[in-house]
Amino acid sequence: MKTNLLHIKNMVCPRCVEAVHNLLERAGYSPKTVTLGVAELDENTPADPEDLAPLLQAAGFELLRGRAEQLTEQIKGTLAEYLEHLRTARSPLTTSAFLTDRFAATYSHLSKVFSRTAHLTIEKYLIRLKIERVKEMLSYGELTLNQIADQMRYSSGQHLSNQFRQVTGYSVSEFRRLMLPERLSLDALA
């Protein structure tokens, strides 16, 4: 069965979009649009998922076939957008309001699908995502812990420090001192 719309896992950044676009073109397909998690092919070049899956897998991506898997990947992409919303919005929305605003579904439904598919709650995934962003900010050495906590909407530097230790097993000062290379790619968070 050929299709023009492909849902793809592990697309987490603009370079992933470019990589998938190039991979599809090299394989002889004409992508109309490629965005995080989705590639739409030209009507004249529909793809057989069985043929395309190994090509994507060789590049570190995975073709999603089920609706629940597709929704989970869309939620992950939206949560990455939410992190930027947290940093830049004067009065940021709650996670649930942000997600329900983006999806035509209740937060309860989104949460159940995500937990069942990712084997992790949305909240825990968001915490992991935030900690990876904190690691990135710490590695630059430009901001204090309190400034990072403020940007990431933690109630205090101590709250961030406690959550950092829970997730990573290291204190912030240990991470800074050792400059541990243990940052995770976003597709490895769940």
TrEMBL record:
PANTHER family: ARAC-FAMILY TRANSCRIPTIONAL REGULATOR (PTHR43280), HTH-TYPE TRANSCRIPTIONAL REGULATOR EXSA (PTHR43280:SF2). SUPFAM superfamilies: HMA, heavy metal-associated domain, Homeodomain-like. Gene3D superfamilies: 3.30.70.100, Homeodomain-like. Keywords: DNA-binding, Transcription, Transcription regulation. PROSITE patterns: HTH_ARAC_FAMILY_2. Residues 77-178 form the HTH araC/xylS-type domain. This is AraC-like DNA-binding protein. It comes from Hymenobacter artigasi.
